[in-house]
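Project standup — Tuesday

K.O.: blocked on the structure for the chain from last sprint. Re-posting the sequence here as requested.
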Amino acid sequence: MPEPAKRDPNAPRYLEITVKDSEGKVWSTLLANAKDFSTGSVGYSVSEKVVNPESGERYQSSLNFTLIGSKPAK
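H.V.: unblocked you, prediction finished:
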């Protein structure tokens, strides 16, 4: 895997993400862990199921945060 073009030395090991509906009711709290992507970029990634607390229906969620400029040059 290529070395990233840059890293953020002050980046934490994970991000805590709260998912709320339009009325402020919390659906879930997700933990996005630091990740080295296969492209060589770095950032955070989380993929989890989130449950609607009103209906019990489940949703699949995926979220990536990529550090801009971290992808190595070819």
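K.O.: great, moving the ticket to review. The two ends are 12 Å apart (CA to CA). The CA atoms of residues 27 and 52 lie 6 Å apart.
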